[in-house]
Amino acid sequence: MGMNDTVWARHANPWSVWSRFSILPLFVLAVWSRLWIGWWALALVALVCAWTWLNPRVFPAPKRLGTWASKVVLGEQLYLTRKGEVDAHHIRATFWLGLMTVPAALVMAWGLWAFWWEWAVFGMMLVMISKTWFCDRMVWIYEDLTPQEEA
């Protein structure tokens, strides 16, 4: 996604994190819309792709970084840039969480292909649960790698 330090800082805004959860439902809706609008659905898919790229860039950097959502982004940045310092149990967990999304995405894709909304929504929900769990793991990584102030 071509994220530099400025984009990472903007993405740490909780509005960016929480609104990012809209991407998969919007994608599912855009693909499903081919039932109603045919090939014009590709324009909606393109808009969702544009939103995916724009999302970490449109919000200002947050004034404080202590929120769960901000820690998700900070943890992901640490995970990507300092992977050698991340504990092995986090590496294993992120691998398995990523792997869990594969069958869920296949269920979602099948539902979208066959116009079985139950399968599409169920698969989407499983992907989002895995992604949310991954996000929580990023917070854990952030807290492990960042010295915490004594209360």
Name its key features.
0% strand; 8 helices; globular; 151 residues
Structure summarized in a few sentences:
With 151 residues, this protein is mainly alpha-helical. The chain has helices at residues 5-11, 14-20, 23-32, 34-37, 41-58, 68-81, 88-114, 117-145.
- Order of secondary-structure elements: HHHHHHHH
User: Radius of gyration in whole Å, from Cα?
Assistant: 17 Å
What is the residue-mean pLDDT, rounded to a whole number? Answer: 94
Discrete helix count: 8
Number of strands: 0
Oligomer: single chain
State the distance separating the first and last CA atoms. Answer: 37 Å
Query: Which ranges are low-confidence, i.e. pLDDT below 50, for 5 or more consecutive residues?
Result: none
> What percent of residues are in strands?
under 5%
- Anisotropy-based shape: globular
By helix and strand content, what is the structural category? mainly alpha
Share in helix: over 70%
Question: Main beta sheet, described?
Answer: none
